[in-house]
Please model this.
Amino acid sequence: MSGSLFESLMRNSMTLIPDIDDSESMVVHEGDMFARAESGETPQFKLELNDKDIILEELEELIRYPRLRTVKMLYLDENSFEDDGVERLAEAAALNRLHTLSLAGNKLTAQGLRALAASPHLHHLRVLFLQRNRLGAEAMQALAGSETLANLNLLYLKANPLGPEGAAALAASPHLRRLTELYLDRTGIGNAGVKALCQSPVLATVEKLTLPDNGLDDGAVDWLLASDYLPRLVTIDLYRNRISRARAEQLKQAPNLPNFKFLQMD
Model:
C-alpha cells in the first residue's frame, strides 16, 4: 500500500473517543479536541481496521505509524496476518497504553496467544476480543499463565474450541483476578468445564458470564449453585443448552449468588 493510501486509510479509520470533563464547556471545538488528544499522554482514539484484508507487511506499516501511540481501542477483526501478525503486534512499544484489542476471526492459534501473553507492552490491556479463532487448551494455558494479561476486565472467547481442558486451564490461572465479564459461548466446555470454573477464584470478580451452546444440562446448574466464587455474579446466559427452566430458576434464590438478577435462556 502506498504511503498516501495508507495515511488516508488511517485517517479515515480513527475516531476520537469523547472524554470531556464535566467542568468544561459542552461547546468544544473539534479541532482543539483532536489536537489535545494527539499531544496528550493518554491515548484517546479508536482505530477500526476490520475486514480490510490487512496482510503482514501492512500490519508492520501500521506498527511504525507515529499516531499508533494515541490509540486506546484497536480493532483488527477478520484480517489476513494470522499468528505472525499478532507476534509483531505484541512487540509494538507504541501499544503500551492500549486498553482494548480485538482480533476476532484471524485464524489465531496458541502461537498467537503465547505472543500476547509474553508481550512486555500490553500490561494496560483491559478488554480482549478473541472470538472465532482456533484457540484451544494450549492457548488457554498461555493466557492463564500471563502476568501481562492479568489486568483484563473483559475476555471474549466465543466460538473457539476450548473444550473442558481449555476451561480447566483458564480456571487454573493464578493471575486472572479482575475479570468482570467472561464470554464462553460455543466453546465446547461442557459440564466439566463449568465445574472447573465454578471451583476457581477466576470467577470471584465476574459479574456477567455467558455459556450458550455448550452442551450443558442441569448438572452445570448444580455446580453454579455449589460454587463459592460467584458473589458478584449479576447476569448468566444459558441459552441453547439442555438445562431445564425449573432448575435454572433456582439460581435466583441461591444464597451463594447474592447479586444475581438476570437469567437468559432464550
